[in-house]
Amino acid sequence: MMKLLRRHKDWLMIVIAILAIPFIFYFVQRPDYGAMRSDQFARIYNRNVSMLEAQQTARLLSLAQALGMSDFVGTLTAGAGTNQNQVAVEFIVNLLVLRHEADRLGLRPGTAEIADVVRKLPAFQAESGGFDMNKFSDFVRNGLPPLGLSEEHIEQLVRDEICLNKIKQLLAAGVSVPKNELDENFQRGYDKLFVDVIRFRSADFDKEIKVSDEDVQKYYDAHKSELKTDEKRKVEFVELRLTDEQKKLQGKERIEALQKLSDRATDFTQALLEKGADFKEAAGKFQLPVHETGEFTAAAPDPQLKDKNLRQPRPIRS
Length: 318
Fold this sequence. Notes:
Blueprint: H1 2-18, H2 24-27, E1 40-44, E2 47-50, H3 51-66, H4 70-76, H5 84-105, H6 111-119, H7 133-143, H8 151-172, H9 179-190, H10 202-206, H11 213-222, E3 236-237, H12 244-247, H13 251-273, H14 279-285, E4 291-292, H15 303-306
């Protein structure tokens, strides 16, 4: 086991050294030399993958091989050939894709499920069969530190393998479609359709339609409840209020200001009571701006009136 780990460690150092060759050489024909950076391995899913992250992921390849996860490694490096650098690049990219898609699909293996797979890893099997705790402890103590990894990385790889197997099962699941549904979809997509178009001109029918007063009355009686609407009105009003400076007054001075405001309101009201009085002319005489609301119902007052007290102020006597 230790010889195997040393061999993988030596191979890993070679891979990390070669990984300085940009990822772009393997996947595009015309690299953008101006955009290449020595500390950037690739850009996947709109994020930059640094050389450090790529090197850490490459260590997982060595770990997966040491654990005997041959099917997992074979799937993620399929088509990479025998070039060790190409194998590492393929593994790194596919592992990033796998984790992204597993997260998007909501695949989250449980602790018990992960532990069950760890106990079945070839590297931890006893000669007589079954899980060997001593091999596991020896691997964690002596095999992981040289790779700069920990027991947590074993769990990560096992989680990745479980997710990969679940995605395989999902893709391999067959869907049975009835023959008549297939035929119908095929005919809809590829068969010729023969249709007739009939055009109607509304003007040709409008001249033949005559609505009598009796028809209107009959329709109204049948839909009377639907035609009722709340009564609406709109009003013009003026505001008499203290200025900001007057609001700061206290005691007698405030009372005098309120009294003047009340007297002005009384004079304005009296002017409106005169015969032939006009609201806007009276407001102009007292230099009061006229405000006008939109149409509103009794149940839904206009916002201008909602928080206003429009009652006439009464005279205040000191």
